Amino acid sequence: MKIAVRGALAVAALGALSAPLAGCGTAKPGDSPSPSPTEAPFTAAYRAGHKAGKAVYASDGKGAAVRETVWGGCTRRALDTRSAEADRGAWVRGCLDGVSNAPQNPPTATVTRRSQDPGLLNGFRAWANDNNARNAATRTTELTTAQLTRTDYDIELTTTYTPAAQRQAGELAKAFVAWWDGDHGTDGVGRNVLILASDGTRLTASRL
Question: What are the tens digits of pLDDT across the range 163-203?
Fold first, then answer.
């Protein structure tokens, strides 16, 4: 199903989803400790996500499962914790199990699946050329979809920016969100756009 973000149900209930997220995924006090040397990174990410999801369930009850699944709450929470960095998809899976009060069922392999999408990048660049955002678009070298669940994914834009270019990264994120709202998308539900420096450092992230 062709889904542009802010489509249908999500817009009505969460119009504020376009607000910027924290840029660099700072660790929270409740983050899980470092995994044991024998535990795979995706397993550690899953367990941390499950712990976070269980905390949400304990606070909000059964309604949390609907909100965190339908509205992408777990995918957004994954951007705000260092424990998800190794495998955001695994963290999200754990979070979803946790908010559903389901027992742990860790994955046996990396969950996040990344693939470059030059077609989407070309579409964004074409739009940017006609909408006073050409400079921001030309600084983007790669567009990658990071599949987190069966339907949810993030967009990662790799740029030529240095880690100090926070303002320029924010302008690029704003331009990309504006283009995405113009009914451009791919199969599934895009949740966030992440702007990455040339060395892979996350500069900022915005909700789609």
Answer: 999 999 999 999 999 999 755 656 778 999 999 999 999 99
Residue 1 lies in a domain: no
Helices and strands, counts by H and E, the chain: 8, 8
- Residue 27: pLDDT band (50, 70, 90) is very low
Tokens for 108? 């046996």
**Full residue range of the structural domain in which residue 121 is found:** 113-207
Dihedral (C-alpha) 19, 191, 24, 59: value to the nearest 10 degrees? 80
Q: Do 83 and 51 reside in the same domain of the chain?
A: yes
Burial class (CB in 10 A: 0-12, 13-18, 19+), 178: middle
pLDDT (tens digit per residue) in 108-125: 999 999 999 999 999 999
Angle (deg, nearest 10), helices 166-180 and 118-129: 100
